[in-house]
Amino acid sequence: KKCRPTRTQSMRISAASIAARRNLLPTMPTFPPLRMAVRINLPQKLSTVLVIVALAASIQSSDAFAVPSAVVHTAIGAFSGALGALSAYPFDMIKSQLQTDYGREKYGTSGIAAAADIFQTSGPLGFYRGSILNVAGIIPEKSIKLGMNDFFRMCFIDTSGCLPLAGEVLAGGLSGLCQVVATNPLEVVKVRIQTGDRSTKPSIIEVLQDVGGVTGLYRGAGACAARDVLFSALLFPTFAHAKVAVPIFLASTFGGVEPSQFWCGLVAGSLAAAPAAFLCTPADTVKTRLQQSRDSASEVQDMNALEMARSIIETEGAEVLFSGSFERVVRSIPQFGVTLSLFDVLSTKAVEIGIM
């Protein structure tokens, strides 16, 4: 005759079973959100989510399931670029208005007049017209730009383990050239939306039909490449040297208090972006004229970048090439300050926790 286990024995068996199950997931009891969920009896669905997060954390800690560093690097670049672009988009909107021939006639060089007109006709959300599409396009663009710059910098390190200044400039320029494949389609669609009729809200399909399909997405690619190559060749070397000097300057300014990596990167990125943005304005103006809304620029559809630049100089004067330069600098300061600083901070954290 089989004897049933006593209550004390049953409790011991249950405790042993629970302990055995816990041994299968050794990292779960040490995962704080999971311990909290057990203690306060969270709803089943939320507890399930926390268990999945705990499992993901334990899997990530295993070398067999480690995420490739290139994926982490790309994700960090995408996230940093998206936040940087969103923080500066209103200035980009104003800048585009001043660089079109229509905007030049209507606003002259006054960014305030352009901003007031946008606010009166479209309200505060008018400054973010096309921003969702811009952020979506920025993700691959900045991933390429930041990732390729790091890659080329590694390639140009000399035998002594140092990166010469020429290598820094070349790495930046090549990263700018690589990003054009993603940047130009984004710029074409963004400029069409920004410079089109504000009373209408065209869909992406309508914009693509307006630009002439896939080939139209690369209109002005020469001017775009000239702008991005020069900008990146100036931006990245300046940032690399500024982020070494800025912490020393800030520490001496604030009485020896060591500033955080984020604030040092923000200042260094802003200082690097300002001169690069100003010097690249002529190429940006030519690019915008080539890509602006078709109904206001039908007579220039067959021009290339050099012909457009010559036309602007002959009919409006060379100074017009710097239209929107102030707004472009003001836009680039927060955009690249945030982007480069976040990219540096997140990359450092990723290395510290062993996922990159």
UniProtKB/TrEMBL annotation:
UniProt key word Transmembrane helix: yes
Solcar repeat extents: 68-155, 163-245, 260-349
Cellular compartments annotated: Mitochondrion inner membrane
Single GO molecular function: transmembrane transporter activity
Pfam families referenced in this protein's UniProt entry, alphabetically: Mito_carr
Membrane topology: Multi-pass membrane protein
A GO CC term assigned to this protein in UniProt: mitochondrial inner membrane
Keywords linked to the UniProt accession: Calcium, Membrane, Mitochondrion, Mitochondrion inner membrane, Repeat, Transmembrane, Transmembrane helix, Transport
Family: Belongs to the mitochondrial carrier (TC 2.A.29) family.
Protein's name according to its UniProt entry: ADP,ATP carrier protein
Organism of origin: Minutocellus polymorphus
Organism taxonomic ancestry: Eukaryota, Sar, Stramenopiles, Ochrophyta, Bacillariophyta
